[in-house]
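## Example pair
The file below holds two records. Each record gives the amino-acid sequence first, followed by its C-alpha cell line.
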Amino acid sequence: MRGKLIVLDGPDGGGKTTQIQLLREALEREGWKVLTVREPGGTRVGERVRAILLDPALGEMGRRTELFLYMACRAQLVEERLAPAMDRGEVVLCDRFLSSSVVYQGIAGGLGMEEVIRVGEFCVGGVRPDLTVILDVDVETGTARRGARKADRVEAQAREYQEEVRLGFLALARSQPDRVRVVDARADAAQVQAAIWGLVKKIL
C-alpha cells in the first residue's frame, strides 16, 4: 500500500513543529511507520540551501531567486526521502511543502499562484499531499510566540507581507477544499491536535 503525505503549513508561529511531533506520536500509537521532514531542508543539500534562504543578511534576494531555491530543496527532498518513504507505505509528515511557495512567493510575493503551482508540479514529480492542514494564526500572535528569538530573513519581512501570507493561506484553502483544510492554531496545543487528528483519520 502506498503511503500518505500529510503537510502542516501556515503563517509563522502556528505551532507546526509541536503539532507534527504530537501527530507523529498519535500515528505511531496506531501502528504507522512515520517519517517527519521539514522545508526548506530535510536533506544534506537542502540544509545548505536553507541556510542561504533564511540568512537575514541576504535581504536583497529576489522573489524568483527565492522561489527556485525553495524548489531546488523540495525536488531533492522528494527524490531522496519523500517518494521512497511513501513507496514503503509510510506516512510522511512534512513541515511546509509546495503550499508555502504558492503563498509566500506566488500570492504574497506577487509571482502568481498558477505560475508557482506549474513550476512546483514539475519539481515534485507528481507527489501530492493527501492532506494539507493550515495552522491559522494572526500576525500578532505569531510574532508573540517567537518571543526573543531573532527573526530569520522571511520572518523579518514587513508586517504587510505577513498579513498577505495569512490571507494567502486562507485563499488557498478556499480554492482546494478537498485537500487543504484550516485549523485555528490560537487554541491550546491539545485542542489543535484533536482538530488535526480528526482530519487525518479521514484519509488513512
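Second record, same layout:
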Amino acid sequence: MAKTDRAALEAIIAADVRAMTAESDQIGRHFAGRHDVAANDFRALLYVMVAETSGSPLTAGELRTKMGMSGAAITYLVERMIASGHFRRESDPSDRRKVMLRVADDGIAVARGFFTPLAEHNRRAMAALPTDDLAAAHRTFTAIIDAMRAFRCELDEQ
C-alpha cells in the first residue's frame, strides 16, 4: 500500500471513529430520555459500566475526576443513581476502606433491555465479515483507544 493510501485510510478511520462517537452520543441521549436520567447520569453509568467490564471498578472519587465534577455534585449524582437502582456500592476486596461503584442488577436489566437490539444490529452488520477482519478491527480500535488515552493523559497534565 502506498504511503498516501495509508494516510488516506488512517484519515477515513479517524472520521469513522468520530461518526461512531456522534452516533453513540445520540443513542445515549435516547437512553437517557427513555429512562428518565440526565445526560450526566448516563455518562456516569457508561463510565462505571466500562470500568467494571475492564475489571477496574471506579470509586466515587475516580468517577468525579472522569466527569470533571465537584465532590458535592458527584455525591449527589451517585446517591441519585443508587436511589434509582442503577448503582450499588461494594467494598473493595483488597482494601475494605475503599468503596467501589458497581452497576446494580436493575441498572444491568435496564441497560440490557435497551442495548440488546443494538447488539443484534451489530451482530447482523458483522455477520458477513471474515473473522480475520474482525480481529484486525479489534486491533485497530485498541490502538485508537490507547492513542486517545495517551492524549487525554497529556491533556490532564497540562
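Notes on the second record: The longest strand covers residues 95-103. Helices lie at 3-34, 39-53, 60-67, 71-83, 105-126, 131-157.
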